[in-house]
Amino acid sequence: MRVAQLLCLIFFCLPRALVSAADLEACTDIQTDCKIWASEGECKKNSAYMWVNCPKSCETCEYAAKRRAITSGEYSCENIGDDSIKAGGIVARMEAMLNMKEYSPRLLSEDPPVMMLETFIDRDFAAEVLRVGGHDFQRSLAGFDDGHVPSRTSSTSWCNVPTCEDSAVMERFKERITSLLDCPMLNTEHLQVLRYEVGQFYKSHHDQNSPVDSPPGPRVWTFFTYLSEVDEGGELVFPYLNLTVTPKTGSAIVWPSVRNENIFEDELRTEHEAMPVRAGVKYAANFWTHLRDFQTPHAAHCGTTAVRTATERRKAVEAARVKNGGAPDGLMNAAISGVRPDDPRLRQPYRNVDKRGKEEL
Asked: Residue 204 in 3-state DSSP?
């Protein structure tokens, strides 16, 4: 996919064109100091402000025009799309990936499914992803308030600036991932490159932190690619699955954050932990996908309650189905109420698959 096409996908291809030639010709800086700020590197360091207010100096005229069109009301936060995956889709997608022999797929856990792709990218490709994506490492965030929590001590470089997002290597990288997951590019968050130095870690956590009734819905997949080996430590551990993965350059780990039987319910057993690095430096790339379009409502600043909720939409569909003679959907209550951390399923024996493909209970 070319840069122009990717920009269309990422920056909100709406029913009608939002950016005219006149919009681009009228591109001007709003602040008089934009040129100075740009020369000091602020286009990169403070892109959220600079791309919109200093588009001429930052050379982001198209981005600024599209953002203005969205915030002026031409995009409605009510316009959320359809769910990209249905019940049963998690296992179906994993089964499809098992047939992609060029990536050397290996099932590490069957229930819930966790997969390793041992040869997802080669070392040269991994080095390029790190070079382009590792442009601005800052303290990794988690939780609320300022996001600085003692449970996470790594550094993150977000691929949310044109020099990263529009680079040929990142286009190829993201397209390869979305093709594997059969996921629209619009459903993805910005890719992040992670760095763990000696002693750094991320305590046990779960990736699904997006309300099922928000415009993009829950996070469905985590696609985690190693960009380096680690001299010692830095393993990825799934405590409920008794599963430990050692970093290997170019390999990728894929797992769901929602349940195969009900995509509106968190798969709590894929909680995981990044163990401390004891020697060397660990680099990796993290990519999350959502149930619905993430990029458009994110850019339009749609809050998590900005639209008629997905639960209300599901209720309406369910009511119509039952009215037409269908049996009630037993998963609806779980979709509405969610699952508590003391879910008894977490105490059930896990099913793990070792390196030889032999199941263990």
From this structure: strand
The residues, any chain, with a CB within 8 Å of residue 144's CB and separated by 6 or more, are none
User: How remote is the C-alpha of 217 from its chain's centroid?
Assistant: 12
Contact (Cβ atoms closer than 8 angstroms) between residue 195 and residue 137:
yes
Domain coverage including residue 271 = 89-296
Sheet holding 243-245, edge to edge: 202-205, 272-274, 236-238, 243-245
CB atoms closer than 10 angstroms to residue 209: 13
Tell how many helices (H) and how many strands (E) occur in the chain.
14, 16
**Global pTM value:** 0.72
Cα dist from 302 to 32, 76, 78, 197, 230, whole Å: 30, 9, 9, 36, 40
- Report the 10 Å Cβ neighbour count for 295: 21
Cα distances from 271 to residues 97, 107, 120, 156, 267, in angstroms, run 22, 17, 23, 20, 8
Per-residue pLDDT of 25-80, as tens digits, reads 568 998 899 999 999 988 877 766 788 889 999 888 877 876 776 666 566 676 66
CA dihedral 64, 66, 67, 71 (to 10 degrees): 140
Burial 25-42 (b: 16+ CB within 10 A, else e): eeeebeeeebeebbeeeb
Report d(CA 28, CA 35) in Å as an integer.
11
Handedness of CA 191, 105, 169, 138 (dihedral sign): positive
Please indicate, yes or no, whether residues 105 and 190 belong to a single structural domain of this protein: yes
- Single residue among 243, 269, 296 that ends a domain in this structure: 296
Angstrom distance (rounded) from CA 284 to CA 157 = 11
* 25 Cβ contact list (under 8 Å, min separation 6): none
* Residues 197 and 224 reside in one and the same domain: yes
Which residue type sits at 246?
A: T
Distance CA 58, CA 44 (A): 9
Contact 286, 157 (CB under 8 A): no
Cβ-based burial of 114 (10 A; exposed 0-12, middle 13-18, buried ≥19): buried
Q: How many domains does the chain have?
A: 2
Lowest mean pLDDT among 259-263, 308-312, 317-321, 356-360: 356-360
Measure the CA–CA gap between 317 and 297, rounded to whole angstroms.
23
Which residues, listed in sequence order, are joined to residue 283 by a DSSP beta bridge?
195
> What is the biggest distance separating any 2 CA atoms in the chain, rounded to whole angstroms?
68
